[in-house]
Amino acid sequence: MLSNNTRALNALVGKSETEIHKVVLDVADCGDIPLELTPSKKKKVVVGALNNADTDGMLAVLINRNPAGIVAGLAAVARLLEAQESVLVLRRRDTDAEARLQRYALDVNINLSVRYADHLDTSEYSNAAFADICYLAAIADALVGVEPAAVLSIDGGAPIEVAFGQTLRELIGVANVKGLLIDHAFFPKEIIDSLITPELVRGSGVINVINDSNCIVEACREEIDKLISACCGRCTFCREGLYQHSKIIDSIVKGRGKQDDIAIAEELGMAMRISYGCSLGLRAAEPIMSAIQVFGSEISAHIDRHLCPTGSCTAYVHFYVEPGECVGCGNCSKVCPCGGIEEKAGYTPFIDEFSCVKCGDCVSACEVKAIKKCVGSLPGSAKSPRKVKNYCDGRPVQQENTERDRLRRRHLSDRHTNGNE
Q1: Of residues 198, 112, 85, the one with CA closest to residue 149
Q2: Are 183 and 202 in contact, with CB atoms under 8 Å apart?
């Protein structure tokens, strides 16, 4: 898959249509929308491209590393369907890659056109068959008797070739795994014991590990944003469904979500799954639908308990001043960009929740680490200003490398006493 399969070009020349058909039928289609390879259904054009839902584009590496295999697979499909023209749609212009593809096309005698577009517009082609480029490379491997494999990228790593039948555990391990994100869909952590199959890794070949520090709602929003960026906007359910899903998940991230939103998202998702024009439309509902199914309790925590379990969503994060540690130096209010910290001599500063933009500048500015961050409800001591026990009257405070807060407070008290003598 990741090496240039020139042998497939020679193997193709010596095979009959019957032999090619048998080989191709044994290869699992990597595309989201399987290609119908019935010899009786002739096509004018065969088009090879990445799935529109593949927003990562990792599999484009096959164009540079296995151009011969791509052309051989394309030629095999074209011969089966008696297509007069073969087309490859690439997302990036690459004249060197195009020259190699055209050279290999001459070897197998096909009329190849190379075009460039961010996504495949199926309406531009009449009487056409569409195939994923990973599927074409797998056909080429099968032509020379090589067992097709999966091309995967784990957590943004370099593409690797993995034999089907291995478990995900062998690639990922088990440390700190909350779940997996595979081609826009979320899976529970138990999936790591599953065998790698064409159905499991169908699509982009990209697998991301969701660990305990990753917020599912934030991860879901990122996936929806990727799909929106790749959406052409022509299909109503895809366009409007993604827009509404984005609004729903954004409201949850910002602390304004309601349980009714979940029901609306699911209803929209069901409609999107049956009303699509390409692989992106087919996959458009996956982020939010799979997140609800697998991590519904974490989403509900955001809505019902106003709690982000990972502390990632700033709307559910609170900053407050710990009265027993504050010395009243005033550094926090000086750096606050929104003027949301109220001060009164002799009292702890009070952070106004309505004004706070959750930037965390006050935490960095506090030299005695008296400003705390919490997820969920604020402690009672943080709901109103309290008298400062070791008030320093606005003098700069130098943080000491003491091991206990008691010693630090004694040090600050001694400095204040000496300063008044």
Answers
A1: 198
A2: yes
Q: The tokens of 275 are what? A: 């009303």
Question: Could you give the CA distance from residue 370 to residue 350 in angstroms, rounded to a whole number?
Answer: 12
The sign one gets for the Cα dihedral 123, 127, 133, 135 is: positive
Three-state SS at 94: coil
Q: What crossing angle do the helices spanning 216-230 and 236-253 adopt, rounded to 10°?
A: 150
- pLDDT tens-digit series, residues 47-96: 999 999 999 999 999 999 999 999 999 999 999 888 999 999 999 999 99
Assigned token pair, 274: 């049956």
Residue 274 or 379, more confident? 274
CA distance 234 to 391: 64
Largest Cα span, the chain = 103
Kindly report the CA angle at 349 between 347 and 351, in degrees rounded to 5? Answer: 145
For residue 85, what are the β-bridge partners? 45
Encoding tokens for residue 378?
A: 């604020």
Instruction: List the Cα angle 268/272/277 in 5-degree steps.
Output: 155
Contact predicate 313/253, CB 8 Å: yes
User: Is residue 128 classed exposed, middle or buried when 0-12, 13-18 and 19+ CB atoms within 10 A define those classes?
Assistant: middle
Q: Quick check: pTM over 0.70?
A: yes
